[in-house]
Design a protein that fits this description.
By secondary structure, this protein is α+β, with helices and mostly antiparallel strands. About 45% of the residues lie in helices and about 20% in strands. It contains nine helices and seven strands, in the order ααβββββαααβαβααα. Strand 2 and strand 3 form a beta hairpin. The termini are far apart.
Length: about 220
């Protein structure tokens, strides 16, 4: 169809890497693109949801000011959801991610945000709120905002389930407050010169693959 023709035309214009490898990779890319388009075609109308904005920048005068830090970036996609009356009902902020980033449980996505292991979704959601509601992180705005992922998935049957599991309303209990508490604490530690990555040493250092050993907790050395 139309989506396939457009994708083919764009991929014909560029060859990434070895032609033989690219020939195989482009088939994977095409399947992923068609799955995402198919998902929207099948769900948008029923949900009164409209993919409205793509690659939305924020920064400068539109930077998100969290007091200790001002943030800028680019939001992959913003969908608008309308009530039957035609009024804007909610804003859905979506970030494209590889399927390897999918988590097993909804609670895992929530925990990642609270622990600052995922800062993208809440920051992008704040930027979208600023754009549409003139402010961010208010009870009213959070009740009208959800954020989640659109996964690059070759298995169409898995796409909807994975996407739905990752979609979180910003008024989820302690989601935003937990995120901001951790962020402020992390900024306080950095200002104090504390750049330790405990308890995430194994995830954020390179020595594990070299030494073939696991990180040792500090209390185990005492």
């Amino acid at each position: 169809g139309f989506a396939g023709a457009v994708a083919d035309r764009r991929m014909d214009a560029e060859v990434l890497g070895h032609p033989g490898v690219w020939a195989a990779e482009r088939e994977k890319v095409l399947q992923i693109v068609l799955n995402l388009v198919r998902h929207d075609v099948q769900t948008c109308a029923a949900e009164r949801r409209y993919p409205a904005l793509f690659e939305v920048p924020f920064g400068g005068d539109t930077a998100i000011d969290l007091g200790e830090v001002r943030l800028k970036g680019v939001i992959d996609r913003i969908d608008l959801v309308f009530a039957e009356t035609g009024a804007l009902e909610s804003v859905r902020v979506l970030d494209y991610k590889g399927s390897s980033r999918a988590r097993d449980r909804r609670e895992d996505y929530i925990d990642d945000i609270r622990r600052n292991l995922d800062c993208q979704l809440p920051v992008y959601a704040f930027a979208a709120q600023q754009r549409f509601f003139g402010g961010f992180n208010t009870p009213e705005a959070n009740a009208m905002t959800a954020a989640g992922y659109l996964f690059y998935e070759r298995d169409f049957g898995e796409l909807g389930k994975k996407n739905a599991k990752s979609l979180l309303p910003l008024d989820e209990e302690d989601l935003v407050d937990g995120f901001l508490r951790t962020l402020c604490e992390n900024l306080r530690r950095v200002k104090a010169g504390d750049f330790a990555v405990d308890p995430l040493v194994a995830s954020y250092t390179d020595y594990v693959s070299v030494c073939r050993t696991e990180a040792v907790a500090r209390d185990e050395l005492e």
